[in-house]
Specification:
2 copies of one chain form a homodimer. The first copy, chain A, contains 5 helices and 12 strands. The first copy, chain A, is of the alpha/beta class. In chain A, helix 2 packs across helix 3. The longest helix of chain A is centred in the middle third of the chain and has 15 residues. The first copy, chain A, is elongated. At the A-B interface, helix 2 and helix 5 of A face helix 2 and helix 5 of B.
């Protein structure tokens, strides 16, 4: 039987801790199916009686004991669980569709690891790649919360255009090389909502830049790739 | 002839600016050869009379006029140049060899874009991948300064072991999940030298952690991948 870590003290962050994701878990019991079950049963070779860490992506991490394993599904009894506080909920990051799928994957992974809960990928006027791939992005997102042992599954949305997004009650910050306000001049407050908008390789076009009530932010005197600018800015803002 | 940007005002950071790297440039003339020449001549199709942006990686960016092009070499007359100040020279980043080559490439690229000038890649006791690939890393580094329009080519060293490195006159910060000092508690001062040491997937081992006079730093309550932790920490520290 795998050794049980002391979940309650939040010392779950060992380098070899495995976290599995399932929607089918409550305070008493859990069912793991699909790819997660395959990984649990066939790759990691968990057996009946083993303890497993689960998250529902809704704020809880469960410790559960496997009671039954069939071909592609495992069932478990919950032993204990910890409920986490949502953080950084007031930060939304708007990511332009990037040409390179590798860079896109890497970017989403990093944003989730760093703790961004709201990511909107949009087709920018100058985006070369167009269209959403929600299924693929969700896979990356689930893998990243498992990696970083996070209890909340971020929302990754796709929008065809920035113009379709409702920015009411948001402080909108648009990152732009030609801006004169530096990020360090912005005081982030927990009780306000921030939408951070970044451009693609060729930059945002004028109509995208002219969203009402936005503040243009200069991040650097250097020319950063989109994903670098995004990860850099978010790292500056987020406290882990 | 390509339009000449006003280099002196430092408004060179247009999204379509091309910067070429050559060691053979002085205040009067330049020679571009090898891959850079191939890109200039055959891919970008520059012609005699065109203006080209060059850097020597030693702090200058030159504007030069092409005067002669042969098969795989181009010669140019320097029209003007701008000398840049070195920044962040007091920060050294120690990167453990990572298993994934993609993650390694991405990490080096991001560190260079963000402006780190001293990168030491080392075989950590628990590194799965071992050994250096200086030629490949230099390629990544050159590509990243061209991308970010930087005038300094960072030093990327390889060391077989942390134990071989001289940390005298350095404030050594070791990033460790179990540390109790947070990064935000460290006040970075420009006139002090900092060595930031990060562990590989499995963490640093005890002998690596016990470097004399090091401060252990906790970055996050979450489990970050090595490259995420490094990019995140460096983004917090560096001002662009």
């Amino acid at each position: 039987m795998k050794e049980m870590e002391n979940l309650s003290s939040k010392q779950v962050f060992l380098s070899d801790t495995e976290l599995f994701y399932t929607e089918k878990v409550n305070e008493k019991s859990a069912e793991i199916s699909g790819e997660e079950a395959n990984h649990l049963i066939n790759v990691m070779r968990y057996k009946v009686g083993d303890l497993v860490n689960l998250t529902d992506g809704k704020g809880k991490i469960y410790k559960a004991k496997l009671i039954k394993i069939q071909k592609n599904t495992a069932w478990a009894e919950v032993v204990e669980f910890v409920e986490y506080q949502k953080t950084n909920e007031n930060i939304r990051v708007f990511v332009p569709n990037l040409k390179s799928k590798d860079r896109m994957r890497f970017l989403i992974e990093k944003l989730v690891e760093i703790g961004i809960l709201n990511i909107t990928i949009f087709d920018s006027k100058r985006s070369i790649a167009k269209g959403g791939n929600n299924e693929k992005w969700e896979k990356i997102t689930i893998a990243a919360i498992k990696q970083s042992l996070r209890a909340f599954l971020p929302n990754v949305y796709f929008e065809k255009s920035l113009a379709k997004i409702d920015f009411s009650n948001q402080i909108v910050l648009i990152f732009d090389q030609n801006a004169e306000t530096y990020l360090s001049e912005i005081m982030f407050e927990n009780d306000k909502n921030y939408s951070l908008i970044f451009g693609p390789e060729g930059g945002l076009d004028e109509s995208e830049m002219n969203l009402h009530n936005s503040t243009k932010i200069k991040l650097s005197n250097y020319r950063l790739r989109s994903e670098t600018a995004i990860i850099f800015a978010v790292s500056k803002i987020i406290n882990l």
